[in-house]
Automatic annotation (TrEMBL):
<dbReference type="Pfam" id="PF03446">
    <property type="entry name" value="NAD_binding_2"/>
</dbReference>
<dbReference type="InterPro" id="IPR015815">
    <property type="entry name" value="HIBADH-related"/>
</dbReference>
<dbReference type="InterPro" id="IPR036291">
    <property type="entry name" value="NAD(P)-bd_dom_sf"/>
</dbReference>
<dbReference type="GO" id="GO:0051287">
    <property type="term" value="F:NAD binding"/>
</dbReference>
<dbReference type="InterPro" id="IPR008927">
    <property type="entry name" value="6-PGluconate_DH-like_C_sf"/>
</dbReference>
<dbReference type="Pfam" id="PF14833">
    <property type="entry name" value="NAD_binding_11"/>
</dbReference>
<dbReference type="GO" id="GO:0008679">
    <property type="term" value="F:2-hydroxy-3-oxopropionate reductase activity"/>
</dbReference>
<keyword id="KW-0560">Oxidoreductase</keyword>
<dbReference type="InterPro" id="IPR029154">
    <property type="entry name" value="HIBADH-like_NADP-bd"/>
</dbReference>
<feature type="active site">
    <location>
        <position position="174"/>
    </location>
</feature>
<protein>
    <submittedName>
        <fullName>2-hydroxy-3-oxopropionate reductase</fullName>
        <ecNumber>1.1.1.60</ecNumber>
    </submittedName>
</protein>
<dbReference type="GO" id="GO:0046487">
    <property type="term" value="P:glyoxylate metabolic process"/>
</dbReference>
<comment type="similarity">
    <text>Belongs to the HIBADH-related family.</text>
</comment>
<dbReference type="InterPro" id="IPR006115">
    <property type="entry name" value="6PGDH_NADP-bd"/>
</dbReference>
<feature type="domain" description="3-hydroxyisobutyrate dehydrogenase-like NAD-binding">
    <location>
        <begin position="168"/>
        <end position="287"/>
    </location>
</feature>
<dbReference type="InterPro" id="IPR006398">
    <property type="entry name" value="Tartro_sem_red"/>
</dbReference>
<keyword id="KW-0520">NAD</keyword>
Length: 296
């Protein structure tokens, strides 16, 4: 019998499915629940166990990991008679890897403490590719002892794993991450349109730019999206719109001004309003093309 902790995984989407599979590959016993049957079938095919409900998934778990889209979904799966807090044993560790508001994480930790459940907020950066390759950056908020317990599990999912402070700190750092990523994608998109309209070999230009100070993980990951106009979602505009709302609201609460971030947040919102919310966030290129007179 394995001495590794038993894990319940709630939320098997674009990120959750490959992440849970990496834990299975690392030898963990994973029981999962999500709303889509095909995702449960995928988990079972990878060697995990599909549960019929949240309560069934978490009842024997030492560690519960959640990866759902936003604060309302976290609250829906955590609270109530059928939720995580009501059905998870006292002493278990809940690691929420969703990207939500810092206050939602603080409130969840407080409610869980009343049930004897420890909590870490541990949002990630790296997108679908990072999830598949287990090279995610994981920013964590919570207690040091709980972080130490969780670290071997997180090391099966990511490469850079850092405790950033108390509950909510991971979400605050993730909000800053999303601000940087959105502004970076926007700058890359504007450069792509500028280069193409100037008649430059786009692939050659992006290669040389990425080798200098203008280079970035964003450009490395999204270069092929730009070149091939391939906007299959790795991280959807809808979710980045949510995240830009989180960072602008959090910044307002602490008195930080984000002038460029505010503009990019509106550009993300406009792209979503034009029906592109289901596309990858590299589709910010489409917004720049429209503004530059292209029909897309």
């Amino acid at each position: 019998m394995s001495t590794l902790p038993k894990i319940a995984w709630i939320g098997l989407g674009i990120m959750g499915s490959p992440m849970s599979e990496n834990l299975i590959k690392a030898g963990y016993q994973v029981t999962g629940f999500t709303l889509e049957q095909d995702k449960l079938d995928r988990l079972a095919a990878a060697g995990g166990t599909a549960a019929g409900s949240i309560a069934e998934a978490v009842k024997d778990a030492d560690v519960v990991i959640t990866m759902v889209p936003a604060s309302p979904q976290v609250e829906a799966i955590a609270y109530g008679p059928d939720g995580i807090l009501q059905n998870t044993r006292s002493g278990a560790l809940l690691i929420d890897m969703s990207s939500i508001t810092p206050q939602t994480s603080v409130d969840l930790a407080k409610a869980a403490k009343d049930k004897g459940i420890r909590v870490l907020d541990a949002p990630v950066s790296g997108g679908e590719a990072g999830a598949i390759e287990a090279v995610l950056s994981i920013m964590v908020g919570g207690e040091q002892t709980d972080f130490d317990t969780a670290k071997p599990i997180l090391e099966a999912l990511g490469k850079t794993i850092v405790l950033c402070g108390p509950h909510g700190s991971g979400q605050t750092v993730k909000a800053a991450n999303q601000l940087i990523v959105a502004v970076n994608i926007q700058a890359c998109a504007e450069a792509v349109v500028f280069l193409e309209k100037s008649g430059v070999d786009l692939k050659a230009a992006l290669d040389v730019l990425n080798g200098g100070l203008a280079g970035s993980t964003v450009l490395t990951r999204k270069k092929d999206n730009f070149l091939g106009r391939d906007f299959k979602p790795g991280f959807r505009i809808d979710l980045h719109h949510k995240d830009m709302g989180i960072v602008t609201d959090a910044a307002r609460n602490v008195g930080a001004t984000l002038p460029v971030g505010a503009v990019v947040a509106q550009l993300v919102a406009s792209l979503r309003a034009q029906g592109d919310g289901g596309l990858d966030h590299s589709a910010l290129l489409r917004a720049v093309e429209r503004l530059s007179g292209a029909q897309v």
